Hints:
This protein is an alpha/beta fold. The chain contains eleven helices and eleven strands. The protein has helices at 2-23, 38-53, 74-79, 112-126, 169-176, 189-195, 206-210, 236-241, 244-280, 289-312, 317-335; strands at residues 25-30, 58-63, 85-89, 134-141, 145-149, 163-166, 180-183, 200-203, 219-225, 229-235, 283-286.
Amino acid sequence: MKRLLTLLAALALTGLMGATALAGTTLTYANFPPAKTFPCIQMEHWKAEVEKRTNGAVSVQTFPGSTLLGAKNMLRGVQTGQADIGCISTAYYPGVFPLMSVINLPVAFSSTEVASLTMWDMFTKYQPKEFADVKVLTMFTSAPSQIMSKTPVKSLDDLKGLELRASGSILKILGSLGAQGVGMPMSQTPEALQKGVVKGLVSSFDVLKDFNFAELCRFETITNLPVYPFAVIMNKAKWESLPADVKKVLEDLGREQSQWTGQYLDNHIKDSLAWSKEKYQVEVFELTEAEAGTIKTLAAPLTDAWKGDAAKAGLDADAILADMLALKKKYEAEIGQ
Ligand code: 3IO
C-alpha cells in the first residue's frame, strides 16, 4: 500500500512538472510609473506581441506603478533578478550610462520617434559596456521636454528662482537659466506638486493628462528641452536561460518596439494637450526666437561636460556625438518633423 501511494505521488508530481513545462516561461516585468502612462502602455504592447509571437510559450506578468520595483532600485533589482525585466529612465542614474546619456543632450529632437530610433541605432552600433551585465530589449525616449507650471512662464525672466522638478541634463539647464531645479523621479512628482515642494516640472506633455498635472499646472511653455532616455533591460542569467527561438522573437522586437513607442507618444502628446485645454483651459506660451537662442547658448557647456565625462569613461566622444547627430538628421529627413 505504501509503495502504491509513493508511486501515485510520483505520478502526480510528474504530471505537475509536465503541466509546468507545457505552460512555458513566465517573465516578470517591473515598471515605476502608473499603468496609464506611456512607459506602461508600451510595456503592455510588448507583452501582447511577445505572447502572440511565441504562441503563448512565454507569458509576461507586468507590475506597473512601482509594485515590484521603483524608479531608483529598478537597475539593481533587474541585475539581481528581483524582476526578470525592468524599465529604467537613465537620467535617474547619473554617471552610470556615459555613452547613452548623449541622447539626453540639448540637441532639439523634432519628435519622439526620431529620438527613439536614434537611441536604438546608437545602442546597436556601439553595444556600450555600461549595459554589459544586462540584456537590453528595447530603448525609447520621452517627447521633447516642456515647462508645465503653476505660475505662468511667459519669458525666461519668469523662471528666476522657480522650483521645477526635472532629472538629468535638464536640471543643469534650469540652473543656468536661474531656475531652481529639483531632482526626483517622475513617480514622486505628483506628491511634490501637491505639497508645493515644486511649482512645476520639465517633462513631456503626455503627463498633463496621464498624471492629471494639467489640473495644478495650468501654464505650459514650449521650450523643446532634451528628451529623457529609457531602456528596457532583462536579467542576464534569465536571458541566457531562454530557448533560441524565444530569444529571436525578443531580439526581432527591439527596434520595432522603439518605433512603436515613439509614434504612440508623438500622437499622445497632441491628445494630452488638447484634453488639457478643453478640461482645464491651460494656456500655452512660446518663447521668442531670441530666448530660444539664449537656451541654446546656455546649453552648449553641457555638451562639453558630457564630452569630458565620456572621455573619462574611455569613449570616443566626438565620434559618438557626430554619429548621434547624423542619425538624428537621417531620421528627421525620413520621418519629418
Ligand atoms: C515620464 C516618466 C514616467 C512617466 C511618464 C513620463 N513622461 C515623460 C517622462 C520622462 C521623465 O520626466 C522622466 O522622469 O523620465
